[in-house]
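hi! just following up on the protien thing from before. the input was this:
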Amino acid sequence: MEFPFVIQKFNLKPFSFLSIIENVILHQPDLPCVVVKHLTNIEERILDQLAWEEDSPLLLLMQDAANREHVQEHIKRQTLNPQPRQQSMFWLLPVSSTTFLSYF
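and the predicted 3d structure came back as:
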C-alpha cells in the first residue's frame, strides 16, 4: 500500500498518522533501514505539506494553544493589576424570597 492510499482508506488525517509512524519506528527496532527511511520520508511529506491543510488537527491544536496562552496572559494581567470590582446592589434587595420575586 502506498502512503496516501493508507490515510484515505482508514479515513485518517495526515497529522494523526504521524503518531502511528512514530510508534512503529519506536517499538519496532528491528525494522530494515529502507523501511525506516521510507517512513521518515512520509513524516517529512506530512510536516512539509499535508499537516497544514485546512481541516488538519495540527491547526486546531495550534489554535487551542494560542487561546490557552491568551487566557493565561489575561489571568496573569488580572492577578498583577486587579481591577476594582463594581459594588453589587443585591444587598439592597429584601431577604424574603416572595418579596424578592415580586420585584420581577
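Helices lie at 3-9, 14-27, 33-48, 57-80, 97-102.
Residues 100-104 have pLDDT under 50 and may be disordered.
cheers
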